[in-house]
Design goal:
With 263 residues, the chain is of the alpha+beta class. The chain is 21% helix and 37% strand. The strands form 4 sheets. A 5-stranded mixed β-sheet has the order 2-8-7-4-5, with no helix packed on it. The longest helix has 23 residues. The N terminus is likely disordered.
Length: 263
Amino acid sequence: MEVDLGQKIPVKMRASFRIQFILLVLVCLCGVYSTNVTIQSNPPTNGGFVQTEPEQTVSLTCAVENSVTVEELQWLRNGQAVSLNDGNRLNMSHVCVQPVTRDDNEVIFTCQLKSNAKVKASIQLDVRYPPTLGDNEEMQVEEKSDAVLSCDVRASPPVTVLWMKDDKLLDLSSSSYKTSNNGFTATLSISNVNPNVHEGVYDCKTNSSIYGVARKSFSVTVIDRVMKFPLGPAITGVVVIFFTILLAVIARWEKIMKCFKKD
């Protein structure tokens, strides 16, 4: 079959070619030149997370890509605006977290276009740190009173907590023991303390998948119960007696003075 290159293309076909060409150009422009923002970090991100530790520094850089105009950037920390200098907003912006603290864990930083908040990128801080637990303690507890042992178990990642007594796992089936752990503080409550049962060395023992085992010790000594004197009522009683005697003396003052008069 021969094709006559000099043959004119029908008007309808030429219009169809123009439409297809325009659509092709638009698709290419939208696919290649759509504006977006990216965040680079130091230390680098891992799946949208930046792993770091307290007292370290995290640097974040947000950049505009595929924009034919100058774009102003905004930073948000957990949805709240971050204050930026005038020279730190156009097309590229930097944010520095220094020093990192434990409170920065799970904080989300978002960079977005001021002109279009839908164009954005986010990263989350993953601050790793062990529990502090606290210093060992020596406790004196009165017999038949209550005692509370506590240790700071806040950590990232979270730790498991075990209570020990005299290097053995504490039997929590006893009604005199109660434990609690809110992720920040772990407590062991002892009610109606008995020297034959409760005296000894207790350990708050934590286990971290990253930092290993840590412990805080409590040396509990049970002492005899002290009879507490009700100071307030006693003072009130003394005052009442004093004024009663004083009034009696005043009432009999004349008779008393006659005893001292000479004949």
